[in-house]
Structure formats: structure tokens, C-alpha cells
# Entry
Amino acid sequence: MTNLIRAELYKLSRNKTFWVLITSLTGFSALLHLLIILDWWQLSGTEFDKAQLSDLNALSTFTIPLFFNIIVSTLAGFYISTEFSQSGVIKNQMMSGNKRANIFMAKYLVFSLGAFIVTILIPLITAFILIIFFGQGDTLSPTNLMYLARAYGLFTLQFLSFTGIVLLIAIVTEDSGKTILFPLLLSIVMFAIEKLITVPFIKMMYENTIFYQFSEAFKYTLTSGEMIKSIFIGVISLIIIIFLGIFMVNRKEIK
Amino acid sequence: MFVVLILSLVTVFLLSRLFALKKEVKKINKQLQFYNNRKTNKKIDMALIDKDIENLGLEINKLIELYVTENRMRVRFEDEHKQAVANMSHDLRTPLTSILGYIQMAEADDVTDEEKNELLSIASNRAKRLETLLKEFFELSIIESTDHHLKSERINLRDVAIDVLMTFYDRLNEKNMETTIHMPEHDVFIFSDESAVTRVIENLMSNVITHSDGNIIISLEEKDLRVRLIVKNDAHSLTEKDVNHMFDRFYMSDQSRSGKSSGLGLSIVKRLMEKMNGKITGHLKDEQLSIVCEWKAAE
Amino acid sequence: MSEYILKTNKLSKKYKHEFALENINVTIKQGDIYGFIGQNGAGKSTMLRLIIGLTFPTSGSIELFGNDNRNELTGVQKRMGAIIENPALFLNMTARENLEVHRLQKGIPGKECVDKTLELVGLKDTGKKKAKNFSLGMKQRLGLAIALLSDPEFIILDEPTNGLDPMGIVELRELIKKLNREKGLTVLISSHILSELHQLATKFGIIHKGKLLEELTSKELDEKCRQHLRIKVDDPTRGAIVLEQILFTTDFEVMQDGVIKLYSHIDDVRKVSQTLTNNGLVIEHLSQNGDSLESYFSKLVGGVEHD
# Structure
């Protein structure tokens, strides 16, 4: 398993798309934060406002499923799907004498790490650097940091299930175009359910998915009951998705 | 509180590393057991987590490779030996059949004395050729045996070559072959066994005399501490394939196994050259065959 | 060590309703170079894929290194290397980087194996050139390097000569022979051209439309494919003399059982038989034997077609 993770890291660190995403997102995130901090662009009504963290308002952009979806599925498309389609290197890995379950897990972990870096870590780090740079360091008080840690902790948990879903789609479709498209459709459907559907049953179902929990994670006030529920949903989804992934990979016929 | 946290983290890290290393050693042990029970020739693999363990693995793999190649060499040697015996019986059968055939014909009642004599002389010629073949075969097997050692003396290759070439003077004249000889002005020294070198040149000359279609060029040169003896002759019917196989045992370009030579001459040359730590190669260019023998020059 | 590297038993693979492979029984012994011959689409790749564990059989079993337990597959895979169909490469990486990924993946200790393998296949000097800029021949070599990286005991090569120039094919053949000789490497190599493997393989399996038509050793193949007259007379020694003295040929062999194989006068059967009879010999058998490799192959394959 260690070997597989090292091999995956080696590949990720040489993946062009990964580096393009890192540089462009660093630039984009820095720009957004700059606009917010300099008050050239104002967002209101975000959860960050409630937490007296208006300077971090730009972060809310990166927590919208539709937005990070594009980033995550692009990475999946050019890091995971290509191995199946264009170059066929997946064959070599599948016959390298490693268990398919381990291969899946290594891919999942490294892909999630990559996605985590580009969609969560980079916006946060750029935000911190800019805030400190512009002398607003005191916004990062212990209470605020605790809030951020809790919010991002819960968010990351849901995010791990999301990367799992994207990885599954990448492995099933074996095509980078579809890998980008399908998760996007999923997010749009979820978005539509949230905004348009009023049927109570569907509403209830939706509130128990990771998609609803993405926004829940950032709620300024969260009861411990809600928190446990969120963790529960995240962990259960994660387990289901990983089992599904391993089951699928084990039966897959490699072309 | 903070110190305790750090300390416990360090402990967890060290313990998990210890556990991982121990697991790795177990895994290596298991693979070596499998190997030592001769269940596999596979080199070991491992989780690449620690440089030192990785180096250990590398050395173990070198050991495995050494054993596998040595073992393989022994098997190959045995196979070749079996093959050689099989080849020999095969190669002896056809001439022997024909000798017996001639004798049988000579013994028949309805042949005249004249015919009988002719048949017997053919049979005896064949038998002589068979004798040469056996002699050469014996010689080759002696050269190939591991306890056959060559001397390593400082000899003057130029003198040796000229001496051998002189003995072929009559045969060359007889066949009307135009022979050009290029010898350097100065002496050429190598460390080798004089009788082996003589045998090499003799065999090359007999080969060239039997097979050449015309001109023969023999040259000796010394360059960059390498000494080369080149025997070149016209060979219109030879193909690239023949050249590739000409040092193999019993290989004959006409496949008929009826020519004057046994097909062992060049094999003997090759084995001798190998034993002398020299090199021998054959090249075909513009319908000319050159056989190049190369030694290291002595200071 | 088990004597058989690979043994399949009634191996079948069905796609939808059509059999891609049907009841294949193949055995490969330690040290064999097994040539797997069949036209494109005959089922070669499917077979190789099943063996290496990329797909799963519909029925029948595969025994590798004396082990037919599917759960042990990963342990067995570690002892093998393969190129299936096109060589699979990371196109944006150099040759060295490609091998490094596989070294990590397989857990081979020491980076030395990377350079050693590159040298073996003749790709040592490619430096920073990325795999996407390689010629087809170079890609094949890199694929081979990947297969050989872990020093496997058994390699599977699917049409490895595709895209190689004649010189490259010769080099590949020599390399395989060398590894087979020096390390006892067992090889399963597929091709759609019989003559391409003729100089190389020690055993052949001929497959057509998912069925194994024939399995034979290279000796048996040579026997079938060197044209000769097979002559059996009441007195083989006399027969040999007659051939030598009257037909002026020495291009024949006398076999153990007294059969004479005559390699000349193949188109002159009448003359041969006449000469033999005129000299008082009784001909018990005289036949023309041997096909060219390709005509042998197409006869075999064609025979099925006309069923």
C-alpha cells in the first residue's frame, strides 16, 4: 500500500493538470481575497459575516459545490480517467501484483489529497497570507480559528465522500469528458432540489446527503446534535462509497 | 499539556514506524523462505519505507541473481553436453552408413576386382575422414574441458604467423591461389600460448584453402594496443546467415556434410580464441569474408 | 519449483453470446518460449489478458506456477511481466520516470534496476525525451523494459514486434533468446505471423476463432516444414550409396529407423524412384513431405474455414 501511494504521489507530482490547477487557483483565490479585503467587492449574508470574518468572505465561493465540482472533476478527468482511456497504463498497475482494493484505495487517497490541496488548502492559505499581509491578523482570534477548524473539518469530511463519488465516475466512464460532465450534472440536480423542490420527503432525503452538509458545515451556530449528525452522514457516505468502489474495481474487466 | 501532546504524538509516530519496519522484516523473511525452499526464483519486493532496508533488499536481490545465473549456467552446460553427444552420433551415422555401404557392395559376388578395389579405396577415404572428424572432436572436447589451461608467455605473433604460413606454401601453390600477405616491419608481441596460436592460424588457413573462391589476403596489424590478424578471402556463395553460424559446431554452409572438412575447424579456433581471452569475429562484405582474430598487445 | 509455469484447463471466455475463447488447454513449461499464433481477432489478446488477470474466465481454470487459486493472483502476478496490446506508457514522462513509477508500484528495492533495464532494451540515451515523442519502436522497447523491470520469471508479450523495423525485430529476438538462455526466463509471445517466431519459439500454439487448433514443438514444426522426400527402402545403406553414386547428391540424412530423408531432387520423385528400383532396391515408402511455414499455417486455418 505504501508503495502504491508513493507511485500515485509520483504521478500526481508530474501531472500537468494538477500544476495548472494549483497555479491558476492560487492566482484566482488571491485575486478574490484581495478584492474582498480591499472592499472593492462586497458579499453579504454569508456565514462568514455572522462569524465576524467578513474578510474571509471570498472563501464562500470555494465552498459552493458547483464551483469546486469543476476543479475536482477536472483533476479526476486528467489524472484518473486518462489512465484508463488514452494511455491504458491502468493495465500495468492492475497486473503489478497489488490487490485491486489497495490500488483503488491508493488512488482514492492521493486523488483526495490533490483535490483537497487545490480546493481547500490553497484558498485558505492565500486568505491567511493576505490577511496577515494587510495587517488584519487579529481577525484570526482563537475563537474564530476554532470556528474555521470546525467548519473546515466537517466540510473536508463531506468533501472526502464527494471525491470518492467523482473517482467512481472517473473509473466507470473511463473518459475525461464524461468525468467532468457527470459530477457537474449531479451537483446541478442537487442544487435544483435544494432551491426548487418542496416535496417534504425529497427535502428530507436531501438534507441527509453530503450536498446539504456542505453548507451546514459553515453554520456559525451548530448544536452538538447537528454536528454529530453531520459527522455521521459524512462517515456513512464515505464507507458506502469506498465499499462500492472496491466492489466495482474488483469486478472490472480492464480493456 | 502541550508537551504531553507533542510527546504522545512522537511516541505514536515512532511506534508505528517500528511496527512498519518489523512487518517489513517479516515480509522479507517470508519471501526468502519461499525462495530457499526452491519454490521460486523471484527477487524480493518490499514496501519502500526505509532507505537502509531498501539497501538490504538490493543486496539480497544481487545474491539471488547470482545464484540464479550460476545455476542456469550449470543447466545450460549439461544441456549443451547432451546436445553435443546427440549431434555427434547423428553426424557419425551418415558417413558410417556410407562406408558400410561401400564395403557391402565390394563384398558382393558380381563385382570385378577392379571395381572392388575402387569401392574399397572410397570406403577407406571416407573412413579416414571420419577419423579426422573424431580427432577434431576429441581436440575440441579437450579445449572445452575446464581443466585445460593454456600457457601465457610472451610470444612474437609475427614470427609465429610467418612460420605457419610457410608450411602452407606448397598447398597454396598447388591450388593456384593468389595470396597477399601484409606483415608489419616490427615484431608484434602478445601474451599467449604458442601452440594454441599456431593451431588457430593453421585452422584458419586450411579453412581458407578449402573454401576460398580465389584471392586470399592475410594481414597482421597492431593498433591501440590491440593486435589483429585478418584472413580475408573471396566467398561468392556465402550468406549473412552462414557467417553468423560459421563458428557453431558442425555448421557447414552447404549443409551436405560431405565436404573435406568436418565443420569443427572454426569451432576449435573460436574456443581457443576464447580461452586466450581474445576475440574472433566474421564479417561479410562485397562477397569477401574476413575473419578477424584480436588479441591484446603485450607491452 | 513446479515444472509447469502455465496450465489452462478448458479455459473459455464468452462476450455477450459469442465465445472469444473456447475450451483452451495450453501448457507452458519452465524455460519454454511459447509462440502463440493466430490471425488478428483470433482471441490471442483475450487469452493473454485472462492469464495476467485483467479479465476473468467465463469457465475453466488457469494454473500459474502450480497455483490456481484466484486469491493468490497478486502473488503470482509479481513473478510475471507483460505487454498487452499497445505498450502502456505515461506519455508526459521520460523513459526513466516511467520505469520509476513501476519500480515504486512493484516495490523493487534500489534504483539500479531502472538503468540496467533501460540499457538492456537500448533506451539508455533517451535522456529528457518524453514518451509521447518516442517512435513506435521506442515505445515498444519501453513497454518491454516495464515488463522486464522486476526480473520476472515469466513474461507475456502481445505482438511485441508491431512497429519495429526489421533490425529491431532481430534485436528483440536476440534479447529474448539471451534472457531465456541466461536466466531461464519463460516467455509467452503472440504474433499473427508464424515465420516471425519460427527462429525463436520452442513451442507453438495455433489459435483460430477462439479455438486452439494445434500445439506443437519447434522440432515438430521443422519436421513438417522442411521439404524433403521421405524414402524407405529394404536396404538403407545400399540406398544411401545409390543416392551418392548415381544421383550425385549427399544432401540427405539416414535416420535411426532407416528412413532416408532426401533434401534434394524434391521435384524429381520419378527419377529418384526409378533410380532406386533400377539398382535393385525395393521401395517401401516414398513421399514428399514438408510445407513452407506460411502455407502450413494457412492450410491449418483454412481447413477450419471450410468445415
